[in-house]
Amino acid sequence: MAPPMGYRTTIAGSLPKPAWLAETETLWPRWRLDGPQLAEAKRDATRIAVAVQERSGVSCVTDGEQSRVHFVHGFLEALDGIDAQQKVRMGIRNDRYEADVPSIVGEIQRVRPVHLEEARFAREFATGTLKFTLPGPMTIVDTLYDAHYRDRKTAAFAFARVLNEEIRDLVAAGVDVIQLDEPAFNVYFDEVDEWGIDAVDAAFAGIACRKAVHVCYGYGIDANRKWKAELGAAWDQYAHIFPFLSRSSADEISIELAGSRVPPHVLAGLSGKDVAVGVIDVASDVVEHPEQVAATLEIAARYIPRERVVASTNCGMAPMNREIAYAKLRALGLGANL
Asked: Is residue 187 packed enough to be buried (19+ CB in 10 Å), middle (13-18) or exposed (0-12)?
């Protein structure tokens, strides 16, 4: 086991799935198994994901999202009002890329817990702090075709309600940190201000655990790499949304920094929040040296009080090569300790 960290450590959420569980190095993998065999394989993959994080020195671990095909659709598939078979091809993240997405066909209802058993299993296996990740309301509505509400804000608050129900069960099961993933926040600035933060706060209402919001520039997939290449010399999206996030009820904001063109000075715009700084570039297969990780953390600490800095990954690692992802985790732990 790694020694105690100089900085607290976590990951954004997902890790690659083993080849015996699902297709590899793709964002929308198909399972290799089904029925009881699939359920057992998911549990085994979760054991590995948690163990690899803990051995790498990650102090706040996740289940690696090993039981979900996709970070959004893994939650949606258990809700009433969603038709997973009625798929529509549409542009998401302001038409950054196209995907075949399920449809909202009726009132959104959570008829049973979605991820409760996964969280219970991860809690039983993890020895320290456990984080569980869920898609945020704005990102959910940006990843669906809405044939029912016909209004993004109305749909977002419907999802905030069922997210709140889910979060209460996860916290009761022993989850220490709940993180809402909101990559859509980096795209729709006006909506973030007008209702996005309020929807996040509605999802977190009355929740008695540590609350985090993750906003990044996306997985290391071709569409995101192309989008980043077109953003210019300085990525100023965070400068627009950090003041809004500062007024949210979240305790921690998770962001991208390593290998990016985010001007570090914008971090000063996050007031009163802990900041999970992305020190691992998930869009590159080059494994960071621990010294590079430490240097990125020191840059962040110029603008954020050191005690509020947490070392993390830029985004989820689901589409990455598994061995490269594991090597990056080791660099994360070693670098934070430096």
From this structure: buried
Q: CA–CA separation, 59 vs 5, rounded Å?
A: 8
C-alpha gyration radius of the chain: 18
Q: Which tens digit of pLDDT belongs to each residue from 256-297?
A: 999 999 999 999 999 999 999 999 999 999 999 999 999 999
Mean residue pLDDT of the chain comes to 94
| Per-residue CA distances from 38 to 189, 273, 306 (Å) | 40, 39, 43
Non-local CB neighbours of 119 within 8 Å, separated by 6+ positions: 63, 130, 132, 170, 173, 174, 175
Encoding tokens for residue 54? 């803990």
- Retrieve residue 65's tokens: 């999202």
Tokens in use for 239? 């400068």
CB 162 within 8 A of CB 120: no
CB 131 within 8 A of CB 212: yes
Give the residues across from 310 on adjacent strands: 8, 276
Give me 139's structure tokens: 């990102």
Return the CATH fold of 8-337: TIM Barrel (3.20.20)
Q: What does pTM read for this prediction?
A: 0.95
Nearest to 224 by CA among 215, 216, 213, 232: 216
The answer to whether the CB of 74 falls within 8 A of the CB of 65 is: yes
Portion of the chain with pLDDT greater than 90, in percent:
84
